[in-house]
Design goal:
This protein is α+β, with helices and mostly antiparallel strands and about 500 residues long. It has 19 helices and 23 strands.
């Protein structure tokens, strides 16, 4: 009992602090998750994976890794930082083989340090294995407690390592069967790549929370989180891997199966709102088209008289264009974004106001002075950054500021891979729209209603997860597992843990 209580206390501790530099509040959007990329059957597999990860950099900037198989021997390099920082030419040259997997990471689960950078690589009874995972497993801590109670030793704090232990302990015969066996035991969101010396297994959870694409470059098979990563290596888009589908790529070609019970898909709506690159296709739709539709819907439900429409760049640009086209109000680039900003190693004193925002964005005074502005943003999380951005516009003598948000109010935390704060820190959880308007200091404020959001996607309205907006979670949440005791030491893992 004491051990279980200690674990719960540890899980309730604040997350490990992020590297020094621009503070978290300098970007008050929901945080990206992770991106995965795989290549099978190419002599320069590591180079192709490197390029694919480059295209997926927007999905995670804390760490990157590549693992390749060289005649059955796995070679790897992982590191903290951006892709071009991690993979210097001499380090990339050490990763040899004809097939491999890669990962860019943002730590939605587990702290930001090297041991959590993926792909995770292990040696076990059947050889070597590597795992790259995009998503979040809601029962990961519960499974981990049970595994530790029967002797498992974990090397990282990421939920993805639970998959490794489950795969390694499976009694199924083939590699794919062991992966499927493990996936039957987890709940939550996963687009996952698992490889050994001979095969790559790509799988998507039954709800299809996270996107995953299958492509081909001549005789080479490619798997990627988004189509923009296929584009960078000129790979052909074949199709999206379907929710609940498991694809195995090996010497004999490609095999597909659907081993899970069918459920209604619950794709993450924030992939369209913020996460995915606008030049990608996910869930059967162009991200850019959907985001412009969000802006058009916003103009219909929240019109206002104004002189110009402008965006909080860059993710809100398409929505702002859509609003401008629908409303007839001209669009202009009222903010100039510094695309070369990284982490600063010094921070000024409080004499320089709103430094964390200004290092990224600066208003064009000539554009905004004296104007009635419709300011478009894709979302508001804490509201701290939005308030600072509005202060910048006020100091440049904007006449009126009408804030329009291309998503509904975020009132709940995400448990499926988008790093949102605890709900108590979400401004819309604590304040009414009018209270938020006063806090931000704008002349008017409007959010996109849920129904208009779904209409803008052009997809089946029942196929999205909207839990952050309406508190309707498709799966149990981590709190639902807290009341269950971990698997006791004397229980046979192969029978009891399977049923968790």
């Amino acid at each position: 009992m004491a051990r279980a209580q200690a674990k719960r206390l540890m899980r309730n501790q604040p997350p490990v602090s992020r590297p020094r530099g621009v503070p978290d509040e300098a970007d008050d959007h929901p945080r990206e998750e992770c991106g995965i990329f795989a290549v099978y059957g190419h002599p320069q597999a590591a180079n192709l994976i490197y390029l694919g990860l480059y295209a997926l950099q927007h999905r995670g900037q804390e760490g990157a890794g590549i693992v390749c198989s060289d005649e059955g021997v796995l070679t790897a390099h992982r590191g903290l930082g951006l892709v071009h920082d991690v993979f210097k030419p001499h380090k990339l040259a050490r990763v040899r083989g004809t097939h491999g997997i890669g990962h860019v990471r943002y730590s939605t689960f587990g702290s930001n340090n090297l041991r959590n950078v993926q792909p995770l690589v292990v040696d076990y009874a059947r050889g070597a294995m590597a795992v790259a995972h995009n998503g979040n497993l809601v029962n990961a801590q519960f499974l981990r407690d049970g595994l530790e109670d029967i002797g498992a030793i974990f090397q990282s704090t990421t939920d993805s390592e639970v998959l490794i232990h489950l795969i390694s302990r499976s009694s199924e015969e083939t590699f794919t069967e062991t992966v499927v066996d493990a996936l039957h035991r987890v709940q939550g969101a996963y687009s996952v790549l698992v490889m050994n010396g001979e095969e790559i297994v790509a799988a998507r959870d039954p709800f299809g929370f996270r996107p995953l694409w299958l492509g081909r470059l001549q005789e080479t098979w490619v798997v990627a989180s988004e189509t923009c990563a296929l584009d960078i290596i000129d790979a052909e888009w074949l199709r999206e891997i379907e929710p609940g589908e498991v694809v195995t790529i090996g010497r004999d070609g490609i095999r597909s199966q659907k081993p899970f019970a069918a459920v209604t898909p619950r794709q993450c709506i924030f992939e369209f709102i913020y996460v995915a690159r606008p030049d990608s296709y996910i869930f059967g739709m162009s991200v850019d088209t959907v985001r412009k539709n969000l802006g058009r819907q916003l103009a219909r439900v929240a019109p206002v008289e104004a002189d110009l429409v402008m965006a909080v760049p860059d993710s809100s640009n398409p929505a702002a264009l859509g609003y401008a086209h629908e409303s007839g109000i001209p669009f202009d680039m009222g903010f100039i974004r510094n695309h070369y900003v990284g982490r600063t190693f010094i921070e000024p004193d409080q004499g320089i106001r709103d430094f964390g925002v200004k290092i990224k964005l600066n208003p064009s005074r000539e554009t905004v002075a004296g104007k009635r502005i419709v300011l478009i943003d894709d979302s508001i999380v804490r509201g701290t950054t939005a308030r600072k951005i509005i202060n910048l516009l006020r100091r440049c003598d904007a006449r009126e500021i009408h804030f329009r948000v291309a998503s509904p109010k975020i009132i709940n935390s995400c448990y499926y891979g988008i790093d949102t704060p605890n709900r108590t820190k979400l401004i819309a959880h604590n304040m009414s729209v009018e209270e938020i308007r006063e806090f931000l200091g704008v002349d008017s404020l409007a959010y996109l209603p849920i129904e208009a959001l779904l209409e803008a996607t052009g997809c089946d309205k029942d196929h999205f997860c909207l839990a952050c907006f309406n508190n309707e979670y498709p799966t149990p949440t981590p709190d639902d597992f807290e009341s269950h005791a971990p698997v006791p030491r004397h229980v046979d893992h192969s029978t009891e843990l399977l049923g968790l």
